From TrEMBL:
Keyword match Ribonucleoprotein: no
Domain of life: Eukaryota
Sequence intervals crossing the membrane: none
Protein name (record): Chaperonin 10-like protein
Positions of the Enoyl reductase (ER) domain: 14-344
Gene Ontology MF term list: oxidoreductase activity, acting on NAD(P)H
Family: Belongs to the zinc-containing alcohol dehydrogenase family.
Protein's organism: Lasiosphaeria miniovina
Keywords, ordered alphabetically: Oxidoreductase
Gene3D superfamilies for the chain: Medium-chain alcohol dehydrogenases, catalytic domain, NAD(P)-binding Rossmann-like Domain
InterPro entries: ADH-like_C, ADH-like_N, ER, GroES-like_sf, NAD(P)-bd_dom_sf, Trans-enoyl_RdTase-like
Keyword Oxidoreductase carried by entry: yes
One Pfam family from the record: ADH_zinc_N
């Protein structure tokens, strides 16, 4: 490919995004060039814009992770679908490419590695497809982080339960869906107006985390149901202590495991007999990471979308302005959006 395209760049640390022209990249042997039709936003995007954290190794930078669009060109080693012209969703991020701006999402043409590109079923819009990549992978990372194989399939008689604190968030909705498919009985916290929606995604019981007695409510429900609750995913900031309060009552003499998705500070709460780990993809080597990506996207996500066992979530909130509207949309996300995923059409 030759020519240029528009991109929203971050020119320097703690600046505002600026729309400029960039040279359109050629794909590497295992890469795909995507003509972006929709971009979904995540908290990491405004964090990198406003604080430079997680670290941005290259300026000017192209931020973002989540896109959906049409395949424009594929690398020489790619011999199977998605072929040029295919509708796809992709995790397009510079994070795994040393900050390369060619791989960032906030532009009209971006590069993505083939392991993280999935065909988009006709029934799913570009806007819905863009909500999936990084949050879906993060939800699956969580289980791997605490030693749960993605091949796990608990049967009802195993009576294995999991607590997901923060189920209405983007990661939380996929944590619910994937936990259900792993065979867990799923207990979730969320604001009351999200309870019914989370039940449609697979939650067995949903609790209002604002309630002063929410811990005892969860413990009572677990005891009534006669299940073993030794596993938890803390999706939102501030959820570790109440999660540990629940596990203190439900784990008994057993060991328990908690995965924490927000930044895990050194002075975080602890509990004897509970392993607490920060959610992070397996990066022992490039081969290990690529294998994990392939399992997340081509085994779990592609098959889930085709069968209907995975659905885009949460509902989309479309903001206007395309690339020019990114700063305003990120500002809105920073203030707080509940039970919605902000998406821009490009």
């Amino acid at each position: 490919m030759t020519g240029t395209h528009l991109a929203a760049i971050l020119p320097e640390k703690r600046a505002r995004l600026q729309v400029v022209e960039r040279a359109t990249p050629e794909p590497g042997p295992n890469e795909v060039v995507i003509e972006v039709k929709a971009i979904a936003l995540n908290p990491i995007d405004y964090s990198q814009r406003d604080t430079g954290m997680p670290p941005v190794p290259v300026y000017p930078a192209v931020l973002g992770c989540d896109v959906a669009g049409v395949v424009a060109k594929v690398g020489a080693n790619i011999t199977t679908a998605p072929a040029p012209g295919s509708r796809v969703l992709a995790m397009a991020t510079s994070f795994f490419h040393d900050g390369s701006p060619d791989h960032g999402a906030f532009q009209k043409y971006t590069l993505a590695q083939s392991e993280a590109v999935v065909a988009l079923p006709d029934a799913i819009s570009f806007e819905q497809g863009a909500t999936l990549p990084i949050c879906f992978m993060t939800a699956l990372n969580a289980w791997v982080t605490i030693g749960i194989s993605l091949d796990t399939r608990y049967a009802p008689e195993d009576k294995q339960a999991v607590l997901i604190w923060g189920g209405a968030s983007s990661v939380g909705t996929f944590a619910v869906q994937t936990a259900k498919l792993l065979g867990f009985r799923v207990y979730v916290t969320a604001s009351p107006w999200h309870h019914e929606y989370l039940e449609t995604l697979g939650a067995h019981a949903v609790f209002d985390y604002h309630a002063s007695d929410v811990v005892s409510q969860i413990v009572d429900a677990v005891n009534r149901d006669g299940v073993a609750l030794h596993t938890a995913h803390c999706v939102v900031i501030g959820s570790l202590q109440p999660t540990l309060d629940v596990l203190k009552e439900t784990k008994g003499a057993s060991a328990a495991r908690v995965v924490y998705s927000p930044p895990l500070l050194p002075d975080h709460p602890t509990l004897d007999g509970v392993e607490i780990k920060w959610n992070f993809p397996p990066m022992q080597s490039e081969a290990v990471l690529n294998k994990h990506m392939y399992e997340c996207f081509h085994v779990w996500l592609r098959n889930g979308l085709e069968s209907g066992t995975i659905v885009p979530s949460p509902p989309v909130q479309i903001e206007d302005g395309g690339l020019e509207g990114l700063n305003a949309a990120l500002d809105k996300l920073k203030v707080g959006v509940s039970g919605r995923k902000i998406v821009l059409q490009i």
